[in-house]
């Protein structure tokens, strides 16, 4: 087996490899293009060859953090990891990444599931996954009566869900940025979302819930032939009473069914958290993530984090939205 290294310009047929191994939306070239264009984070592609045919691959980001450089597969998302069915290939790709990290900095590989050949790693976060039926009527009937009632609630108020592309990104961003300020977390840049939607083209959708022309909730949906994933979703807390997020997710789920997806990925959550409970009510089941770090780091919540979040909330929203993207591009989570 031979492992070769490529950059974004020289790698060929990468997306075909992602589809071949059902790698998920973050593994596509589009994610790496957006990381590079928005934040200058350069990818490195490792391809494992047996003869002339690629037996697997691993994409890493040469990530420039706040204090140091590292290798991450992949930043700003739930998972990356090697693409291969053969465990030997996966081991070889990870071993190559470990050797590269000795030259660049710490290594982090976010696997979408636990792996047997790496006994140590973090499983503190889980994805929430929902198998999808072939039609929206069956999907609707699968929900509990309480969930269906909550979906109808914003509709009775006159709210509507619309689907589009780049033209809806600014409206989505206003909701997202306001929500991030409330949570005490720096937001991504507006250009990040524009670059994501542009790079993914027909594989990306922006969904908004409107009430009398005012956007109340929004999300971005990324599609592969089998999986529909929601990396970002936000709603205005001032309208929590009418549950616009329930209509938002109904539209996201029904859109995923219409596009032929077989699995809906609600994204990562901490078990027992509010977002975890929200996703579980749709019938989603948890699937542990496995984050592997070299050198290993302890998993513990920083005592400073609540204070930092509190301080960030106290910043004027304009200041937070100006400073946030400058910091966010250097935070791999």
What are the salient characteristics of this protein?
333 residues, alpha+beta, Aminopeptidase, six-stranded mixed beta sheet
What does this structure look like?
- The structure is a single chain.
- With about 325 residues, the chain is an alpha+beta fold.
- It folds into 2 domains: about 1-125 and about 290-295, Gcn5-related N-acetyltransferase (GNAT) (Aminopeptidase), CATH 3.40.630; about 135-260, Aminopeptidase (3-Layer(aba) Sandwich).
- The chain is built from 11 helices and 13 strands.
- The chain has helices at about 15-20, 30-40, 85-105, 135-140, 145-155, 170-185, 190-200, 245-260, 275-280, 305-315, 315-330, and strands at about 1-5, 40-50, 55-65, 70-75, 105-110, 125-130, 160-165, 205-210, 215-225, 225-235, 265-270, 285-290, 290-295.
- The strands form 2 sheets. It has a 7-stranded mixed beta sheet with strand order 7-8-9-10-11-6-12, with helices on both faces. A 6-stranded mixed beta sheet has the order 1-2-3-4-5-13.
- Helix 2 runs antiparallel to helix 7 (about 190-200).
- The longest helix is centred in the first third of the chain and has 18 residues, at about 85-105.
- It is globular, with a radius of gyration of 20 Å.
- The two termini are about 35 Å apart.
- The model has no long low-confidence stretch (mean pLDDT about 95).
């Amino acid at each position: 087996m031979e492992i070769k290294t490529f950059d974004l310009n020289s790698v060929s047929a990468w997306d075909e490899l992602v589809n071949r191994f059902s790698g998920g939306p973050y593994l596509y070239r589009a994610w790496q293009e957006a990381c590079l264009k928005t934040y200058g984070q350069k990818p490195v592609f490792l391809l494992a060859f047996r003869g002339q045919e690629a037996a697997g691959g691993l994409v890493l980001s040469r990530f420039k953090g706040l204090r140091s450089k590292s290798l991450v597969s992949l930043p700003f998302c739930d998972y990356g990891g090697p693409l291969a069915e053969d465990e030997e290939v996966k081991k070889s790709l990870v071993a190559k990444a470990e050797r590269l990290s000795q030259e660049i900095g710490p290594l982090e590989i976010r696997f979408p599931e636990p792996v047997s050949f790496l006994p140590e790693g973090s499983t503190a976060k889980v994805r929430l996954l929902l198998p999808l039926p072939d039609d929206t009527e069956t999907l609707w009937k699968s929900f509990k009566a309480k969930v269906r009632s909550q979906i109808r609630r914003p509709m009775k108020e006159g709210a509507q869900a619309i689907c589009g592309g780049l033209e809806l990104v600014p409206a989505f961003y206003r909701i997202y940025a306001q929500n991030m300020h409330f949570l005490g977390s720096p937001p991504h840049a507006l250009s990040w979302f524009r670059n994501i939607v542009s790079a993914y083209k027909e594989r990306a959708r922006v969904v908004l819930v409107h009430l009398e022309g005012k956007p109340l909730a929004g999300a971005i949906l990324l599609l592969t032939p089998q999986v529909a994933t929601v990396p970002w979703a936000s709603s205005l807390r001032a309208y929590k009473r009418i549950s616009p997020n329930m209509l938002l997710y109904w539209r996201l789920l029904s859109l995923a069914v219409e596009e032929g997806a077989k699995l809906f990925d609600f994204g990562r959550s901490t078990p027992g958290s509010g977002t975890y409970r929200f996703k579980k009510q749709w019938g989603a089941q948890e699937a542990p993530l496995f984050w592997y770090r070299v050198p290993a780091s302890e998993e513990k919540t920083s005592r400073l984090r609540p204070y930092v979040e509190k301080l960030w909330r106290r910043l004027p929203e304009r200041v937070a939205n100006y400073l946030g993207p400058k910091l966010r591009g250097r935070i791999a989570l």
